[in-house]
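Handout, section B. The chain below has 82 residues.
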Amino acid sequence: ANAISQFNIGTTSDRFNNPNKAIMFASGYFTLPAKSYFTESDITITAWIKVSKHTHYARIIDFGNGPHSDNILFCISAAYSG
């Protein structure tokens, strides 16, 4: 990936058990270079996600250009009873 920074990221086996072929986020993240990913073409994001722990409002993908400006948020959440 063309990440410009990363935090708590490692590699692990992919879904076919090939070693070091998948990214593992241990409460981590990485950032991409600043640019508009939404103007000139469609965007496709593909992920195989193996959840090891459910938390409330755990973000999987969070793209954005600031509040209310071309944001994509994909998250999972444990059951919530408020």
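Note. The chain has a mean pLDDT of 75. Compare this with the example in section A.
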